[in-house]
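hi support,

uploading two proteins for the ticket. first:
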Amino acid sequence: MYHVERAIFDIRRGLPVVIHTGSRPLLVQALEGSDSVEALAALSGSRPALVLTRHRLAAMGHSISAEAARLPLAAEMDTATLHDLAVAKPHGEKQRLSGLSPAGPGERGALALMRRALLLPAALCADVDEAQQAAIEAKISYGELLRLDAGDALKALHGAPGMLKRVSEADIPLESAQASRFVLFREPDGLREHVAVVIGAAENAAGPVPIRLHSACLTGDLFGSLRCDCGDQLRNAVAEISALGGGVLLYLAQEGRGIGLANKLRAYTLQDAGLDTVDADQVLGFGDDERRYGVAVDMLNALGITQVQLLTNNPLKMAALRDGGIEVVSRQALYGSVTDQNQRYLTAKANRSGHYLHDALRDALNDAQPNG
């Protein structure tokens, strides 16, 4: 975890890191924030390639079975061209890409680091030429470059199951639930913190506990954005859990379905141009939902909760808890307001992601019909 944490910070600063693959070392760097590929080419002694996810390639008209692919870069490609390959909205026709090959463990590990760092999932990767390996080893020994094993890089997205730390807690009365206590948990790499809002006497309960898994949404939760229903769901969940006699709301640091705030804003811009939420994320190189709920399982285990009544419209949350050994005894729907601004977003979640929202959308449509 220590090496992964260091690698993520170096990558966010625009620095390259070395990924050990068992053969020739691989020098990797984030495309986001990169000014030129020439410095990476000079350092590695070989021409870099651009590594893209299958989601981004599908948006450009290329269907591949591998998780990612490596695209050799021509010498004349500038950073604007690379940016277009990584994030620009496709213009209808298939973009011609020659020389695509499945990404190896090192390249896939590079993309995992980008996603963990909440950057665009696009990486510049260059094999270290034999003539440059001594120079690279010297930089590693002097601490100028960090070396990371490909296997560790690939595990970056999964965190460290079972190693979540319960750090601090305090009573914080809420408007809808005065008997509330906030318990903060920190992931072992120190990058993310999550909060369990314990309402009433929910810890170590004998029966099913009302639980809400809520992913952080700065725009909706704090500012009341009309583009989503997150703020309504957050407040409704606290009120409902309190009405049920107590339970826990897990507030998870997974902004934008796990892609981070910067990428969520990029996706919003693409949605303004006509894409739905799923297609917008795919154009940026992400899947339908990048969130992972292992941390939620760890939080529930730390609170002594093994049976839950889950407040959710998302079948993936139910499956994730069950896979983690938490018994989901029942599910309760939890809706926010359906507005002109968020109806297209909610419809895409229902029709393309399988969320249980059709009843809420139908009721909203009926309410909008003129009486008569």
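and the second one:
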Amino acid sequence: MKPMNQLLSLHQLQPEQLHQLLQLALQIKHQPQLYQQALAGKSIALLFEKPSLRTRVSFDVGIHKLGGHSVYLDQQNGAIGQRESVEDFGRNLACWTDAIVARVYEQKTLEKLAASSGIPVVNALSDLYHPCQALADLLTLHEQCGDLATVKLAYVGDGNNVCHSLMLGAALCGMDLVIITPPNFGPDGHELQRALKIAASTGGSIQLSHELSAAAGAQALYTDTWLSMGDQADPAELMRRFSAYQVSTELLQRLSVPYLMHCLPAHRGQEVTSEVLDSDASLVLQQAENRMHVQNAVLVQLLA
């Protein structure tokens, strides 16, 4: 098993490595005093091409809790690859920092940073993946449901970067995942095949459907915004295609699903109603908190 030296996508991990990350995240969450100096003397660059609340704050605060130092860089420093090449950006950051956390528009930017810098790079969101979010989701499901290999999760909405990382994470854990989208809005075919291959070796399953009834009996129903940040689409057309997939209290009750999950930010009244988002069924704040704990586990694994 290759050691973990980057986190650009969950498909880089073996099932055992993912399990170890989740167990480490639980320990950091419940025994933080053991890790107060885990990153002492380490500096982490936080590189953001996109706006952020949860990702920026959870990394910044988490690094501080581990005794490390973070440096925030946004587009005021010049767009990555325009003022200077991505490769030069990475090489320079490697002169001063021990790792790079990057939230970018394109996955290839992360790959260039990793190749040029020679230091660990963590994907904090790209067009293809959102691995840190999926890790937080898996930790939340483990806390609520126990053994992930016994969990059925239903994802409803657009087959986007969050969906791709959930597919890979679920497959690595041996979970059953059903992805419910409008026609022509399913996940990327290459990412689906990658997840199916992993699931075949772990006992998990990935099912695609256009029908909400496929979510019946799931432990949780997961949704996301219908339009990913930075994407361009006709809002009226999106409403026409997606409105039947709105998650509500009535839907959860009809399908006998106890929990709602959402990576946030939510567009209330579109993909999810405020009633269910603010209800006892909602796990969204537990997911948000767990972002910090799983990200801390990733950084400890990479740097400590």
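thanks. also noticed: The longest strand covers residues 43-48.
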